[in-house]
Design brief:
Transcription Regulator spoIIAA; 2 domains; two-stranded antiparallel ribbon; 61% helix
Length: 572
């Protein structure tokens, strides 16, 4: 019996993929799963240690949540587990409420995520503007890097303070105790990871650095801290089920942190799922539109995984962009790869836990330094600084509060600012003016009714403010990209306002069309959106000649573009 559309909406991708699963797909998933499982090992330990917990807590989390997120989730190739985004939040919760408080907070956040998914709020995460996302990822990256300075340089410091300024002061005062061996190991780790990436995206640099660094410490008997010397190694065997103690007196104090964990989990997992879709469609010719992620099912899976994780001593988890990218590059086809990644980690825990004890802390610090740099989205900052002062202010406030206050305050303040800016931008689009003969005459070149649209071009229009929260609607342009003619015209006559998030969405469309050999032309852009487009690098991306005053000029430009594209074989 065939499943109805309603049934399919609530089925995980792992079930839907069984319809046409084959031995060939399994072999791809097997190789990808083992590869990403090996990559996940040092990251899981590093994130857990940076959060103030034992290394095995990160491994337990990666096993349990990695399996559940892949088995129950709405993404085809996403990998779930502990991530850098949670490090600062977890450390703060553990410092204030202890490990029991962390486990309670994780369960509460998991319940929130399940409710968000079941009530269809998976798509509501898009209402967080891009300057806020960039602001707190920049801030989190700096905070993670600051927590790794001690192990990176092998400083002799009993406890690293939780507050950023106090931490930096303590590190500076104790910098004279640095270890040459530890510094060399950490710096070498970074060099190895960069070199591996330069050679090929398929080489797992973190694993290469981990193996070489551990071997160097073991062979040369280097006097540096290892997982064995600091944590007495990690216990071998299956993770044990243990129901956390639920203390009702902590609920009120944990509501804010739980909401932060839930929002961070939702944002990062759905961002990772979008990246997963984009990479999968680019690398797999058989990737179909219905293979794209289901945000609500993904949130339900994330929620269930976070409810179960503390029962095995694990951390909060979400979609991991770097491991997801590794999974896709290694050839993953279905969620089975994610489940194999979890089983690979379980096999390491059961049969190779003694070897993990020799891993140097300096190597893990080097790996986390690379992770913090990669997650920081630093290349977005120059583009952001070219936008309006209001977008820059939202980014700066979110960034500063993330570093010097905490994530909960940063996200709340950023959202309040964004909401006020949204109201002001929408209000600015309201105009009252008299209809004159000149107004009617000027409008003739913009109307479509008397224009002939040639076979080599198609026109899409954006109607209304194109601000955060509405940007996913632009996906209709590239949804069936292989069916599009060589020239795509975006008519912006009725797009009344544009912000940084909307501009980023337009840039993504332009890059996708360009990569497919197609030309994008804009026409009829109003004053505010045009100013933002000209301030940014978008004009350079599509070319100044492809920004036309009206649809009549755009159709003339389309003819020129078609004649230029025709020899390349893109004409139909």
């Amino acid at each position: 019996m065939e499943l109805t559309h309603f049934d399919e909406r609530w089925l995980p991708k792992s079930v839907l993929c069984l319809r046409d699963y084959s031995l060939n797909k399994f072999l791809h998933d097997l190789v990808a799963g083992i590869t990403v499982g090996l990559v996940a090992l040092p990251l899981a330990m590093a994130f857990s240690i940076a959060s103030g917990l034992t290394p095995q807590a990160g491994i337990y989390c990666a096993i349990v949540t990695g399996f559940l997120i892949s088995a129950l989730g709405g993404s085809t190739t996403q990998i779930g587990g502990p991530t850098g985004a949670f490090v600062v939040v977890i450390a703060g919760i553990v410092a204030a409420h202890g490990v029991d408080g962390l486990f309670m907070c994780t369960v509460m956040a998991g319940v929130m995520l399940v409710i968000m998914g079941l009530t269809g709020m998976g798509s509501a995460v898009k209402y967080i503007p891009r300057p806020i996302v960039i602001g707190f990822t920049n801030g989190i990256a700096i905070l993670i890097a600051s927590t790794q300075v001690k192990d990176f340089f092998g400083l002799k410091l009993e406890k690293v303070p939780g507050v950023f300024w106090a931490r930096m002061e303590a590190l500076a005062q104790n910098f004279h105790t640095f270890s040459f061996e530890a510094t060399l190991l950490a710096a070498g780790t970074i060099v190895i990871i960069i070199a591996c990436r330069a050679l090929s995206d398929r080489i797992p640099g973190a694993i290469v650095a981990l193996v070489l660094g551990t071997a160097a410490v073991w062979v040369l008997k280097l006097p540096v801290a290892t997982i064995g010397s600091r944590f007495n190694g990690i216990p071998s065997g299956m993770p044990h089920l243990h129901i956390p103690v639920f203390r009702f007196d902590l609920i009120h104090g944990l509501l804010g942190p739980a909401l932060t964990v839930a929002m961070l989990g939702a944002i990062e997992s759905l961002m990772s799922a979008v990246v997963s879709d984009r990479m999968s469609s680019a690398s797999n010719v058989n990737f179909k539109s219905n293979d794209r992620h289901n945000p609500n099912i993904e949130l339900v899976a994330q929620g269930i995984a976070n409810v179960v994780s503390p029962m095995f001593g694990g951390l909060p988890a979400t979609g991991a962009i770097a491991r997801t990218a590794t999974n896709i590059r290694a050839g993953a086809r279905t969620p089975v790869a994610g489940m194999i990644h979890a089983l690979t980690l379980l096999a390491i825990l059961l049969f190779a836990s003694k070897l993990v004890s020799f891993v140097p802390m300096a190597v893990l610090a080097g790996i986390l330094m690379v992770v913090s740099y990669n997650m920081g989205e630093w290349l977005e900052i120059p583009s952001l600084l070219k936008l309006t002062k209001t977008d820059i202010s939202v980014w700066l406030v979110t960034f500063a509060l993330t570093v010097f206050a905490d994530l909960t305050v940063a996200v709340q303040a950023g959202m309040i600012l964004a909401a006020l800016l949204f109201i002001s931008r929408v209000a600015a689009t309201t105009t009252v003016s008299q209809v004159t003969d000149d107004y009617v005459e000027d409008g003739r070149v913009h109307i479509l009714q008397d224009k002939d649209i040639p076979y080599y071009a198609t026109i899409f229009r954006i109607h209304g403010p194109f601000l955060f929260g509405a940007t996913d609607k632009i996906d209709v342009v590239t949804q069936h990209i292989h069916e599009l003619p060589p020239v795509v015209i975006l008519r912006l006559r009725n797009m009344t306002a544009l912000d940084a998030t909307g501009l980023f969405a337009l840039e993504e469309v332009a890059r996708t069309l360009k990569a497919s050999g197609r030309e994008l032309i804009l026409c009829g852009t109003r004053e505010q959106p045009l100013q933002l487009i000209q301030k940014s690098e978008f004009e350079e991306l599509i070319g100044p000649a492809n920004i036309c005053d009206n649809v009549q000029d755009a159709l003339s430009r389309a003819e020129e573009a078609f004649e230029r594209l025709q020899p390349a074989g893109t004409a139909r």
